[in-house]
Request: fold
Amino acid sequence: MYRTHSNGELRIENVGQTVTLAGWVQKSRDKGFMIWVDLRDRYGITQLIFDEERTPKEMVNRAKTLGREFVIQVKGEVIERVSKNSNMPTGDVEILVKELTILNKSIVPPFTIEDQTDGGDELRMKYRYLDIRRNPVKNNLMFRHKVAMETRKYLSDEGFIEVETPYLIKSTPEGARDFVVPSRMNEGQFYALPQSPQTFKQLLMVGGMDKYFQIVKCFRDEDLRADRQPEFTQIDCEMAFVEQEDILNTFEGLTRHLLKEVNGVEVDKFPRMSFDEAMRRYGNDKPDIRFGMEFGELNEVAKHKDFGVFNNAELVVGIAVPEANSYTRKEIDKLIDWVKRPQVGALGMVYVRCNEDGTYKSSVDKFYDQNDLANWATITGAKPGDLICLLSGETDKVRAQLSALRMEMATRLGLRKSNVFAPLWVVDFPLLEWDEETKRYHAMHHPFTSPKPQDIALLDTDPGKVRANAYDLVLNGNEIGGGSIRIHDKATQALMFNHLGFTPEKAKEQFGFLMNAFEFGAPPHGGIAFGLDRLVAILGGQETIRDFIAFPKNNSGRDVMIDAPSAIDDEQLKELNLKIDL
Amino acid sequence: MYRTHSNGELRIENVGQTVTLAGWVQKSRDKGFMIWVDLRDRYGITQLIFDEERTPKEMVNRAKTLGREFVIQVKGEVIERVSKNSNMPTGDVEILVKELTILNKSIVPPFTIEDQTDGGDELRMKYRYLDIRRNPVKNNLMFRHKVAMETRKYLSDEGFIEVETPYLIKSTPEGARDFVVPSRMNEGQFYALPQSPQTFKQLLMVGGMDKYFQIVKCFRDEDLRADRQPEFTQIDCEMAFVEQEDILNTFEGLTRHLLKEVNGVEVDKFPRMSFDEAMRRYGNDKPDIRFGMEFGELNEVAKHKDFGVFNNAELVVGIAVPEANSYTRKEIDKLIDWVKRPQVGALGMVYVRCNEDGTYKSSVDKFYDQNDLANWATITGAKPGDLICLLSGETDKVRAQLSALRMEMATRLGLRKSNVFAPLWVVDFPLLEWDEETKRYHAMHHPFTSPKPQDIALLDTDPGKVRANAYDLVLNGNEIGGGSIRIHDKATQALMFNHLGFTPEKAKEQFGFLMNAFEFGAPPHGGIAFGLDRLVAILGGQETIRDFIAFPKNNSGRDVMIDAPSAIDDEQLKELNLKIDL
Reply:
């Protein structure tokens, strides 16, 4: 071992001991007769002192050559510091160096290895191994490890078995695009990388495994939006002989465990809300309930006057923004510009100032009187000092727009506190959603989700109204997990494939193995999958997943550090019986 | 929840309770007035009783329709059994059924769901979800989970951080073949699936992660030998600021922990042996030391007579097979045939019977006297009653042949006990090995392994003699782990690439990112990787890894259950800019 102690370990009790330390030179200060060096490793920083009077001259001279990020080993005595630094755990002591060995030199790093670095995103990605030396990234990776370990401990203690499912599976053109892997031994054929282990975990339930989980990489060849990765990690879970209630309770337990062990936060029983209610109250199926500003639907109290914009709208809906009456006219105009941006897409915004004296002043005073405005205030829950913001239009669109405004205002008001955790179950999702592009229904969750038995009859008459035994776990406005009770009989599964536009032949070709399996005594079962990258980021109080991934890819799916993907040899292509055809 | 208890849970103390159980019908016996059903789940079997006098008639009639593997739910009272079955944990009780619900029917399974099944390998693989219902497979998967959990707990407690490295990386034509993944977004370019996270774990050390591990899938597109899989799982580990001794101690600790927690076996400090010694004493770099039969090298006492076969041989070497003097002449002839099989490849075998009276009788009495044979007995450690088997020829070949014979004899003699664990470190592996086919040296471990400093000079003069800081952990004759201290400076790494036949351009193209990283203060580091599939099989006292993998592939790399790999749509190919060229 190159060291007797780590750089985060020594305390005043160690004074007098001879120790050997190793690590990186964080910085050095040369006062001529004395040199101080901050020595860093994963565990912390320890101050070294080279003193002309007490350190051999050769070592002092060598210390003068040290540059940032040199890797060194020192032997010396732990001494008490004259000026202690109470900000660092090792701040009471320093090492009076007797021997210095340079283990490896470093050229000047392209950015500073400090919490606040001068490196831009691209540079940090190219030299990710240097970026990982920085506390913010290093701590995130350690945090991720802790979340994964606690997840495994909890589920294992609850009787779940982690089973590894295969990575080289079969391509299924449903849903997102698969990454495919040409097979050399099976000419002209391809494996696919799993988008999720969905069918395998269901087969494990058919196989009697009873409680399964896996922390597993999944792959999706999608055009990458910001903060999406082509490979991502799921906490994938499935249980047999359960109903929705059992799944919710079990994974509420897991989430509560994580919040307690990882964040030290105790959370009460998670509230539940139907999809319909979430859309009505928050315009969003993953509402952030750390704060209020619930939607007030105003059709009944806003469509009785001569204001055509509202009268022609499917939905008039508003939120009361706390204490935003202080906004100047100019600020409000900027807010209106904000909702009219193409990313939000509103056509305009009506507002009502709620004055401290109980009166109201609105942008539609021409059409509505104080009594009308008072009604709006009651329904949106506005208090004196608030600003009511109203949008109107087609229900789905206007809800999405107002939801975006609600989140924006919460951010501006500092209501999205990263150390507050507000989980929520959203249940009773629709089974199907209409796709304008393909002009047919798609499975909202996936084709294996079971419809609510009482809604099955609607499949033929009003498919969009059929609700599923499907649920999402939402945390602070992010979907961190989602799942469903599955279909477990062949007839219902065939019906489902039929409604999703599969011919019986196509269904058999792609999912025949699953439908066959259902003939041999498949138990009722259901499950859930958590997106680990997102979960870790949110528990860590951050928004972007990239800093919780050791070696992320950029928005073009490239790893700029290793420069992948890249061209491969012709010989390799030939062995795979492939030709590139650009 | 479909049940109040599992089928492995109820005991005599539960008598009188009303319970609900669910599971699969293992078997049913219909005595007309009474029907017994064995109900099975992951946790065990509970006997159900349907009694015409005490169970509602409708339920009895329904019970008569039950077939094997039907999934049912029953409600009833726990009663004491008249004839108890002490072989099963629930054998004191049975359930007097009041309500029976058939949750799902089953057609007749293609093989019996019993410990000894009538299903052949192929059928079991096609219906793997049924195979997993059988105790032997189910227990293996649970055992694997336990090994993985204990590994994670141990390493995490030792300060290791599990970091997920990417699956979509860069193709490197060194070593085995990569599986490649065409990139749609980067036209004509390919990712590769990792054969191991080797370079990434080294970059994590450069990044200061200090102690890393990961249980991770790896991929190798090789022609599959028996008991190899195209995707396999590694326990991948790396440490910084360590020397070989530190790695050996740390992972000896892990292995000891697993043996204790998983097998209940306490093992003393693991013996160590150099590669040279292992080859000399056992003819094998992964010797099974659960038993003796060490090699005795006989050149000095066997080449002094007129026996040309020995005189012309590079090596004459023998083992004393305990108590095998009892072999008849016919049996010995069959053994000689065995060593002459092409799989072993010996040209013949000389033997010496060690009689109980201290005399010897050999197949070469024409050339050697009692004194010679007594010398051979001394060197091979033969006792009266043993049979000495001698092979001769080219050193490398004859060692491999005698090693095969040693293992065969141990198997015949029952010396390879699956509940005995004999770990061993083999150290000081050669850095390079000569490849006859390509007529050049290859890295025996991989190109990142550091040569022993004292041997570096030999690189130019006698490359085959250079020893590496490389080690294998051997358990019961299997390599379960292997690793090395790595090169951590750019100059040595460049030297190594040069000796392995890389041009500087090629080295830079493929591993430039790693050599660059070495310029920014790379710490000394090293690591090890365990093959989890093999490790689990050996700890589980079995030889084949396939039954420890939930969904294995066959020898053609096919998953016969889901029928993968398979053809993909032309549209998919077009998007990937590929053409199949058979």
